[in-house]
Amino acid sequence: MNRSLLAVLLCITGPVATTAAQVQVPVNPRATFLGIANDPSALPAPGIPLAAVGLTPGAWVDIATIGGFSIAGATDNSRGLIAVFSSSPQLLTPVNGLVHRVPGAIPIVHGAPTNTANTYNGGYSTNIAEDFVVARIGWSNGAVVQVPTGAAYVFLSVLGNGSSYFSNLSDPNNDFFAVFTPASPAALQGTAEHCELRTGVNGTPTVTPETKQAAAFTTVSVECVQRFGVSSGELFLIGANVYPTSGTPPAGPLPDMHMGFDAVGVQVGTMTTAPGLWSLFVPPGFGGTTVIVQGFLLAPTARNGIVSASNAHRIELQ
């Protein structure tokens, strides 16, 4: 019995490890739901019942990782992880060239899509449309997503580097876990894909809180960042608008956008590994006004085929 399946069985009678409502499930790095080819030690990833991790369709969850695994005997610090929701626990037997092994896979509305690498042997595609990124080494760790309608299980698979091959993966100290924590969507939710916004007032920009106060003569710093290291070369845009603090934030022009139709682009550029930057000096006399800012990546791989959007931040001028 592989370690991930044992975790699921334990979860049914009691969570593997919990902190408040948090559930930690060990991940066997050799277990995958992706297609494989001539990969003798690869294992089938189990379908983890959502009930075992305290989830139901429509709920929001933060899935992240702790610990790490080893690739080909290297340092035990890799933490790449992807996931897919499914209506059933069925996982098809791997056959060289079989791409879609999760017949009940369900796409999500929010969450970062991923293009998984071809198999090391044979060069077969492993890429499916429904999976999403949880973590990548050197980049973001964690995905806040909504459990889709009809989902009853979730499958996990590690995300290595280069070609897809699982037989040379290991977890020598058994410390690699997926962590499921109940979450709430942001007040001004973006698409939760590859674009992240950070803001700061006379200080280092941060993801949270998403509402900050800025007195006159302070400087607001804004950063647009790619989350998982797959958006270099894409155009980024930082948009801004203003509205009365006591009023309603603008909405549109697309779902998960909070700019309204009279917003302006305050910064545009090509995304690199460094953040896209913009700053605003707050003049006196604008108390009671809120500046709303949001980051965008023009990305054909976005779930809407056009653009991925960060959560919007509100800067309340004092």
Task: Describe this structure as you would to a colleague.
By secondary structure, this protein is mainly beta. The chain has 2 domains: 3-183, no CATH class; 195-317, Immunoglobulin-like. The protein is 3% helix and 36% strand. It contains 1 helix and 23 strands. It has one helix at 3-13, and strands spanning 18-19, 22-26, 31-32, 43-44, 48-49, 60-66, 70-71, 81-86, 105-106, 132-135, 143-146, 153-158, 169-170, 177-183, 195-201, 211-214, 219-226, 235-244, 264-270, 276-281, 289-298, 307-309, 313-317. Strands 16, 18, 19, 21, 22 and 23 form a 6-stranded mixed beta sheet that branches. The radius of gyration is 21 Å and the shape is elongated. The protein starts with a helix and ends with a strand. Mean pLDDT is 91; it is low at 1-20.
Provide key terms for this protein.
23 strands; five-stranded antiparallel beta sheet; six-stranded mixed beta sheet; Immunoglobulin-like; 36% strand; 318 residues; mainly beta; 3% helix; 1 helix
